[in-house]
Amino acid sequence: MLTLSKAKKSQGAIKGFAEDFIVEEIAPNGILIERNKIYTRDNFPIQSDAVAEQKFSVFILQKMNWNTVQALRAVAKRFRRGIRSTGFAGTKDRNSISTQMCSIYGVTPEMLASVHVKDTSINGAWPSSTGVKLGDLLGNRFTIKIRDIKEQLGLDGILGELNNVFPNYFGEQRFGNRENNAQIGIDILRGDFESAAMHFLTDCTNEISQDAIEARQRLDMERDFKSAIEYFPSYLKYERAVIEYLHRFAGNYANAMRMLPRAILLMFVHSVEDYLFNKELEMRVKDGLIGPQGEDLVCEADFYGFPALSKTRKYGEDGYGKEVFVVGNIVGYDTELNSIERDLLEELGIDNKMFALKRMPELNCKGSHRVFFAPFKDFNQKFDENGNLMLSFSLPAGSYATTLLKEFVDYETKQMPASLS
Predict the structure, then answer these.
(1) What pairs with residue 192 in β-bridges?
(2) Do the bridges between strand 10-14 and strand 409-413 make them parallel or antiparallel, or are there none, so unpaired?
(3) Which residues contact 318 (CB under 8 A, 6 or more apart)?
(4) How do strand 297-299 and strand 325-330 relate by DSSP bridges?
(5) What is the pLDDT of residues 121-163, one digit of tens each?
(6) DSSP readout, 100-168?
(7) Using CA atoms, how far apart are residues 18 and 300, in angstroms rounded to an integer?
(8) 28-137 — its CATH code?
(9) What per-residue confidence (pLDDT) applies to 419?
(10) Per-residue pLDDT at 35
(11) For residues 378 and 141, what is the distance between their CA atoms, to the nearest angstrom?
């Protein structure tokens, strides 16, 4: 991914400890949900029918070294409930300390106050007639420590180059640790479920565990699913589910892939959309096309200064001033394609109508929008007494802090002990 800034960058390491990556959610009313702070219903005027029965509890979840779904599943399990009883506005990085608004059905605030899950806390809870759903947030505030700085370079020049925006790439994690999510997604769109299954089961890129590498390579050579049940590592539970199905129902690769949770299958298809967006954005960065051009889509800022994507329209239409964000397509079956998107789809051997998956309609993707260049706010920088670079900033929902960091630092990710304490 091409960066917008051309200045020389410092080198360093991130995510060495959970304390190095702090994520605090910004609620729809602009309130920052700070860590170690208790909140009440009065802080968040969430729409809730006072007359309706209040069967939900809305709560503030603080967690460390948990991803959002795993933490909520652990909380729900304490009340003999499943993950479907919970809701959240946005996912938060596992390798972090994060705060966010969540909800659970059929559990009272008093019950939540007494729950104990390792490395989590409930920082306030109240009854509600509605739960929290994806998108019920404005953005996130990040506080990041960058260790092992090789050279303390100033950032003012880079800030001047960026002019308060940065290329809004989807982060590398969207494409999977084995970097094959998009390929599997393309296979699914083409209806080639055998290829999708075999890529899922046998790709070894970035695989760390030697027994996983050996198992994947052996299956790739032998294609013997009965034997693979015996030697595939038990921790590869999703792979084993696919293998066991193919052993029982030889050749039914489509239903074998359905052994995976729908969220994972959607992730594969979404990664194709993400790839297309990133490629088009990279072209704009290369050509310096930061502002709106010709028939570009644009949107204005909301009250907080973040993109109001619900008000997207073509550039030049009445009602827009000069301060707008350029909006790109997240390609789906209902997208009005531009020439760049048509060319990119042709290179992949697919077309956008394939996102209306006839053989897997549960994965249909209509398409949506995302700004090409996202704003960042409240930027602060300093070096601490140990020479670590401390950065803090706020980003709109869906934008990646690691993507903005690439504009300032050539970093590597280091996984160290869970806590400094």
Answers:
(1) none
(2) parallel
(3) none
(4) antiparallel
(5) 999 999 999 999 999 999 999 999 999 988 878 899 999 999 9
(6) EEEEEES--HHHHHT---TTEEEEEEEEESS---TT---EEEEEEEEBS-SS---SHHHHHHHTTEEE-
(7) 35
(8) 3.30.70.3160
(9) 40
(10) 97
(11) 9
Q: What is the dihedral of CA 393, 394, 397, 400, to 10 degrees?
A: -10
Global pTM reads 0.91
Q: Structural domain boundaries of the chain?
A: 28-137, 180-262
Task: Name the residue among 421, 417, 409 with its Cα closest to residue 148.
Answer: 409
Give bridge partners of residue 127 from the DSSP assignment.
57
Of residues 45, 206, 217, 237, the one with CA closest to residue 128: 45
Write down the CATH number for the domain with range 180-262: 1.10.1510.30
Rounded Cα distance, 313 and 317, in Å:
7
Across the range 298-304, mean pLDDT stands at 94
pLDDT in tens, 19-69: 999 999 999 999 999 999 999 999 986 655 555 678 999 999 999 999 999
